[in-house]
Amino acid sequence: MQLLVDYIPIVVFIVAYFLKDIYFATAVLMGTMPLILLVQWALTKKLNRIYAASTVLVLILGTATLFFHNPLFLFWKPTVLNWVIGLVFLGSLWIGDKPIIQRMLGNAATLSAPQWRTLNLIWVGFFIFVGVVNIYVAYNFSEAFWVNFKLFGMLGLTLVFIIIQSLWLSSAMKNDETLDNNTEN
Prior knowledge:
Layout: H1 2-19, H2 22-44, H3 49-68, H4 72-91, H5 100-105, H6 113-140, H7 143-184
Helix pairs in contact: 1-2, 1-7, 2-3, 3-4, 4-6, 6-7
Subcellular location: Cell inner membrane
Function: Plays a role in cell envelope biogenesis, maintenance of cell envelope integrity and membrane homeostasis.
Protein name: Inner membrane-spanning protein YciB
């Protein structure tokens, strides 16, 4: 459900972009994201931290985009957000009792401490990679291409990553089961 909510502003942004231009789409996005954040809060009494951080970045970089009439500020938003999330995941290896990925998926998977650290680092790599790809597209392709990449390209990268992560998790858990069975025998 959260993934769907996360993509509503992107879809609204793209529709607004194709109706008028990047500046109109930026203004619409700046209005949509806080509204969705308020609706989430009203319904759940919880704030999704990543969505809240994304909203703050949109408001700051969107304001710069409109003020300076330069879309590059907005183009940096996905990169900054992904890199900050990557740093948080990386920092969780030293802060707290478990890596963030273990806190997120600990009930769904059983892994050893080194495997959780590895999976957490895989996520760090993914966030850094997506940030790099976003800024590469922003500087090397047209504005319209970047807008489409923002929805379809990033979604595609995320889906491929989830598949790869699922395969890795399956393999890691299978290896643990084999080790446990060999130890018991």
